[in-house]
Design goal:
Length: about 950
């Protein structure tokens, strides 16, 4: 389902899946606002009327509300607003509404998090007088109270002094709120600005006298007396020293700051380590700004020495040594001495490489989270262009390609002066490589700090696209005994990052801007790229074999992690002689078919097919024929399969011949030659029986079952599917087991055996979950769609159909017999719910994630699965028979007004324009 964000604390904003959407008309916005304030609960018609029209509701209140709800549903989706007998309910989680999150955070005294949600006056405009009277004052009161309580908390550490500018703004905006003035005068006093505090008190006293004829409160008078008696506080805690405030906003890193706070409080020497541009310095400054201790910042990048950058005497509690990678040895010496001679001092350092000092705790700074990275880009783009980017999808992709590296994101955002986000995305690599000296200079410095073996390894790892493991590195780097030491050095310098997998294995990767820099150093390097391609050919061929065994899910996950490397190897193979490209494409074809990338797989195979090795060509043609068959390009499939059969026979390859016969049977079945297909399958199985290859015979049984299905001989087809299923289970072949289950499910669907149908789909989904949803073959979706239809889950069935059609566009189509059956099911459902509603449901299905689709496939039937209630269906059918509203009321023993209400609900649910369209829909259902 679409993710909604309803933002009412400031300008009225609605975001759907990260994109802003516009609601037409103030009344519609007001309707959404009142529903959002009580989301998950029904808001009565009368309450909605009062909120939208105060004391002057329209004569046909419910009809007017239905009109506005219809407009709201067209923007947010049909499922977002539910009609109840007494009113309407907004069905979104409370966390999607900023007002509700704001209240929850305040109830937990999380004032910082709550106040970050506040963007200005609630609702942003005068939606209606009701909001001004009932909601806005209470929200503003809670906001101001939260501001005051946060300042009270900060006063214990002196952090409230940073709030003086904010307090000036608040007292100017709410000049008669004396509790704000009290906190402003207190902060000014504690900051030693007594004269200014006295001036502000006098201004307040005058304003209160002029406007209210009153004196300041006793608390204000008391602090005024203190200011008069002592111009500066007699006993004041020492002022915290901090770095000067940064000129740009800081985004995210709450988790990192909390972790850093814990480390600094438990360890006396902490190093923030990370690659160039990761934001180490900015994080340390933000930590200092939030720290409750006296902070001394020593900037080492431009200092003559570490000693000269540190004040003498050192009177702080926390010393920050920034950019230690330039002077690691001296930094170790000075830090060690300070820790020995100043037992109360803690040291926080930033460095691209850990210092290696005794007792040092290393904190490796990860990339920015996706949301924070997008916020950073938006902010920096707005600084140079004046506008926040509207293409959220392009911005998110930029941040993803830059691996959340803050400096790279800021450099990319700077191009917003002259380029849109989409244009920046299209030019991202050259923009970073050629035009941003800042990033290159930072990486140049890191590179020159490396030893010779480390530099050599750094250049060679640029050949990897995405992650890689140690085995791959050993094959590609060719550094022998120097490898582990060099790798450790690159990890220490934060140029290579480590990722620990759930099973404990470690993979390595470079952030994309770092990889691009390394690639510029590597150049062509044919020997490195040859070793890279050879290694991933081995990985692909081993994975192809494993995909036919029991742990297909893990194999798909492992191969998916290396997809970037497979594509890089294929791209390089284009310019190389020999059969490397064809071997790679052949080894990956079945994996890509499992992933649903049939079109791409066929394209790669056809590109490399002109090679001379007969055995390789025979295998490649078999894979090509399979992909063409999945695309329903039966002529191409037949040609490929026939040539593959001829080559296998020439080579005397019996197993290959049997597979080729089975493959030709696939095409024969699909083109109506079912008798030929059955004969070819019998020939194939005879060979496999003689060879004792039960696994391969099981696959031929799936084709034989399909031939019987195509011949309308379901009694013969179902046993074939069941036997294939049993062979798959007995041989531990997960893919064959799934194929057998899908065949059994189809037979059950045709026979109306819902119980067996659900059992088989449940088992298939369980297998898919083992692969983390990476197996994206549309067959299971079609099986799930037909199951949902059989169980009366009409809305779910159409959503699943939408997803299946979208996935099929990658080339993964089904056999004719299953296609005809599923198309008929979809047509029947479209007729039942109406074309426009069906289109919307199928569009929703196209946006669902694999996890959401699997949950949808197995959801139990509920009354809400049908578009109309039973009574609404009765009303529609009677209208289709030509009865008037009065006649329908008499026939169903209900009032005419109830009939009208039902017809309006039907019209809205089916997105029909009038009663005449309801009649036409009812007639189409009855045939």
């Amino acid at each position: 389902m679409a993710r909604l964000e309803i933002r009412l604390l400031g300008p009225f904003e609605i975001c759907r899946d990260g994109r802003r959407v516009t609601l037409p008309g103030r009344k519609v916005r007001a309707l959404l606002a009142i529903l959002a304030l009580d989301c998950g609960r029904t808001v009565s018609f009368d309450a909605l009327g009062r909120a939208l029209w105060a004391d002057d509701p329209p004569e046909r209140l419910r009809g007017s509300l239905q009109t506005y709800v219809g407009r709201l549903r067209r923007v947010l989706g049909d499922e977002s607003v539910t009609t109840e007998p007494t009113g309407y309910r907004l069905d979104v989680p409370p966390e999607c509404v900023d007002v509700l999150r704001f209240r929850q955070l305040l109830d937990r005294s999380e004032y910082d998090a709550a106040l970050q949600l506040w963007r200005g006056d609630p609702f942003g405009e005068q939606l209606s007088a009701w909001f001004e009277d009932h909601e806005t004052p209470a929200l503003i009161e809670r906001y101001l109270t939260a501001c005051e309580r946060r300042i009270d908390q900060e006063a214990t550490t002196g952090a409230h002094l940073q709030r003086i500018p904010e307090l000036h703004e608040l007292t100017a905006r709410y000049p008669l709120r004396e509790t704000l003035w009290l906190r402003l005068l207190t902060a000014l006093r504690d900051a030693g600005r007594s004269a200014e505090a006295l001036d502000r008190y006098e201004a307040l006293r005058t304003q209160l006298a002029d406007e209210l004829g009153a004196d300041p409160s006793p608390d204000l008078q008391a602090i005024h007396q203190q200011l008069l008696e002592v111009r500066r506080p007699a006993a004041q805690p020492p002022m915290r020293r901090q770095p000067p405030p940064d000129l740009t906003r800081f985004f995210g890193r709450d988790t990192e700051l909390n972790r850093l706070d814990h480390l600094v409080n438990t360890t006396r020497l902490v190093t923030i380590a990370g690659p160039p541009g990761a934001g180490k310095t900015r994080l340390s400054r933000e930590f200092a700004a939030r720290s409750a201790t006296d902070v001394v910042l020593a900037e080492l990048a431009s200092a003559a020495s570490v000693e000269s950058a540190i004040p003498d005497p050192l009177d702080g509690d926390l010393l920050i040594l920034d950019n230690c990678e330039h002077v690691v040895d001296e930094a170790i010496e000075v830090a060690t001495r300070i820790l020995e001679t100043h037992p109360d001092v803690r040291i926080l350092t930033t460095s691209r490489v850990p210092l290696g000092a005794p007792g040092e705790q290393v904190f490796r700074l990860p990339p920015l989270a996706a949301t924070s990275a997008k916020e950073l880009f938006d902010d920096r783009a707005a600084l140079v262009s004046g506008d926040t980017p509207v293409d959220a999808e392009a911005v998110a992709e930029i941040c993803l390609k830059l691996d959340g590296l803050p400096l790279a994101i800021e450099l990319a955002a700077a191009w917003s002066r002259v380029l849109s986000p989409r244009q920046i995305l299209q030019r991202l690599t050259p923009l970073l490589q050629e035009n941003d000296a800042t990033m290159r200079a930072a990486l140049d410095w890191s590179y020159h700090l490396l030893s010779e073996p480390q530099q050599l390894l750094f250049e060679r790892v640029a050949v990897f696209s995405g992650g890689f493991d140690l085995t791959a590195l050993e094959c590609v780097a060719d550094l022998g005994d120097d490898l582990l030491g060099a790798l450790t050095g690159l990890v220490d310098h934060s140029l290579v990052l480590t990722d620990r997998l759930p099973d404990g294995r470690i993979r390595f990767r470079l952030l994309e801007p770092v990889r691009q820099y390394a690639a510029s150093l590597l150049g062509e390097a044919p020997s490195v790229r040859s070793r890279h391609a050879a290694h991933y050919l081995t990985v692909a061929q081993r994975g192809d074999s494993e995909l036919h065994k029991s742990d297909r899910g893990r194999t798909v996950i492992d191969l998916q992690r290396d997809e970037g490397n497979f594509l890089a190897a294929l791209s390089w193979a284009r310019s190389q002689p020999g059969d490397l490209g064809l071997r790679l494409a052949t080894g990956l074809a079945y994996f890509w078919e499992n992933r649903g990338f049939v079109n791409d797989a066929r394209g790669w195979l056809e590109e490399f097919l002109d090679r001379d090795d007969a055995a390789l060509r025979a295998t490649a043609l078999a894979r090509l024929g399979r992909l063409a068959w999945r695309q329903r390009d039966y002529a191409a499939a037949r040609l490929a399969y026939q040539e593959s059969l001829d080559l296998h026979r020439q080579l005397g390859d019996e197993p290959g011949t049997a597979r080729a016969l089975r493959n030709l049977a696939l095409v024969a079945a699909a083109t109506g030659e079912t008798a030929v297909a059955i004969d070819l399958c019998e020939q194939s199985m005879a060979i496999f029986r003689r060879l004792g290859d039960e696994h391969s015979r099981g696959w031929t049984l799936t084709v034989l079952g399909l031939a019987h299905f195509e011949a309308d001989d379901y009694a013969a087809a179902a046993p074939c599917a069941r036997e294939a299923l049993e062979i798959g289970r007995s041989t531990g072949a997960a893919a064959l087991t799934v194929a057998g289950r899908l065949g059994t499910a189809f037979a059950a669907a045709v026979a109306g055996d819902v119980r067996t149908h659900r059992e088989q789909v449940t088992a298939v989904v369980a297998e898919l979950r083992k692969a983390s949803g990476l197996i994206e073959d549309p067959e299971w979706l079609w099986a799930s769609m037909s199951l949902a239809a059989s169980e009366g889950r009409e809305l779910a069935s159409l959503r699943l159909a939408g997803a299946a059609i979208a996935l099929s566009r990658r080339g993964g189509r089904m056999s004719d017999v299953t296609t005809v059956f599923c198309d008929a099911t979809v047509a029947r459902l479209r007729q039942r719910v109406g074309a426009r509603v069906a289109d919307r449901l199928m569009a929703v299905g196209r946006q669902l994630t694999q996890d959401e689709l699997m949950a949808e496939a197995l959801a139990p039937p509920t009354p809400t699965d049908k578009p109309l209630t039973g009574r609404e269906l009765e009303v529609a059918e009677l209208a289709g028979q030509g009865l008037s509203n009065e006649q329908i009321a008499v026939a169903l023993v209900i009032s005419r007004r109830t009939v009208e209400s039902h017809l309006e609900h039907i019209r809205q649910k089916l997105d029909l324009a009038s009663r005449y369209e309801i009649v036409a829909w009812a007639l189409s259902r009855s045939g």
